[in-house]
Specification:
Helix content: 40-55%
Number of domains: 3
Number of helices: 13
Order of helices and strands: HHHHHHHHHHHHH
CATH class of the largest domain: Mainly Alpha
Number of strands: 0
CATH architecture of the largest domain: Up-down Bundle
Distance between the termini: 104 Å
Largest sheet: none
CATH topology of the largest domain: Zinc Finger, Delta Prime, domain 3
Length: 323
């Protein structure tokens, strides 16, 4: 009997070996980093354990390298607990020639600072600001962040800084957030606000911002004096007698008016100005670190000439020649 051969159709024949699609390392690394930024440590650890892409012993190191490179170059806000979890999961703490521990540590701190400043992490920010010697409530933490994140307004900032003791409190707040200069400003902090509070709270230095705050305080004091004198005058007209003489009240009112006019004239050139970002960030006095901006170990060029003290010794002591 002849054997009939029927042509094979594509919808019926299937290959014996089904080839799974290859793993897209950059895409999965971005998914992993986004999940780490939004989840708490317990939920993120559970998510890692149930991802089939991480079950392969051959793919896990490759995924870990891509994740680390993305965190070092384009990392989004990430809490330190999830960063440490990734480090243990992908063995970043092991001694390897291609990983600089100083750079990884610096990046971890930077990403955690960014994570703290996000509005959804206000509870963690309050916990970071709250200290045993300086108790900070949720309302106070929100008020301090409002002063650092709102758009710059000249008069509003001067009035806020006129409150006694507020400048020192804002400086302590910025230091706890890791902001020691304008260059340390991270979103959503406003650069002009950081420069202003750095300038008005800088101890032992006089600058234009401090002078403007002092003038505003004088103006407010003079306005309070005029308001009190007006109230006393009204009370004196309504019910006599009054203890303060009318002539004395006139002299005080004249002096207060002179203070107000002088203060307004002195503040006129600064209306609408912005704080200097260089004056509020003095150069550090300590020697520069051996780490560069990326956390890599560097060594500066050696001096070509010997130090002066060594030159004197080399001329007086013959034993040092050729040493």
């Amino acid at each position: 009997m002849p054997v009939l051969h029927h042509p094979c159709t594509p919808d019926i024949d299937m290959p014996d070996d089904v080839v799974e699609p290859s793993l897209n390392l950059p895409r999965f690394a971005r998914l992993l980093i986004n999940t780490a930024g939004d989840a708490d440590p317990a939920s993120f650890e559970h998510w890692l354990a149930h991802r089939p892409e991480l079950w392969s012993l051959a793919d896990r190191p490759r995924i870990g390298d891509v994740v680390l490179q993305q965190l070092l170059h384009q990392g989004q806000p990430l809490c330190e607990s999830n960063f440490d979890l990734l480090g243990r999961y992908f063995c970043w703490d092991e001694i390897r020639a291609d990983i600089d521990p100083y750079r990884v540590r610096a990046r971890r701190n930077l990403l955690h600072r960014r994570w703290q400043l996000q509005p959804r992490n206000h509870t963690a920010l309050t916990a970071a600001l709250d200290q045993p010697h300086d108790r900070v409530s949720v309302t106070e933490a929100h008020a301090r962040m409002e002063r650092l994140t709102r758009p710059w307004h000249w008069l509003q900032s001067l009035l806020s800084a006129s409150v006694p003791g507020r400048a020192g409190i804002m400086r302590q707040t910025m230091q706890r957030l890791g902001v020691h200069g304008v260059r340390d400003t991270l979103a959503p902090l406003d650069t002009d606000q950081v420069a202003f509070w750095m300038a008005v709270s800088q101890p032992g230095h006089f600058n234009l911002m401090k002078m403007q705050v002092a003038i505003v305080r004088c103006l407010l004091g003079a306005l309070v004096v005029l308001a009190v004198l007006a109230a006393l005058a009204l009370l004196g007209d309504a019910a006599r007698p009054i203890a303060i003489s009318t002539s004395s009240m006139k002299h005080v009112a004249i002096h207060a008016s002179v203070v107000i006019v002088s203060g307004v004239l002195m503040l006129t050139p600064f209306v609408g100005g912005t704080p200097s970002r260089t004056a509020s960030a003095p150069a550090p006095v300590e020697p520069p670190s051996a780490l560069d901006g990326h956390g890599m170990l560097t060594h500066g060029p050696r001096p070509r000439r010997p130090a002066p003290c060594f030159a004197v010794v080399s001329q007086t002591d013959p034993d040092t020649e050729g040493g």
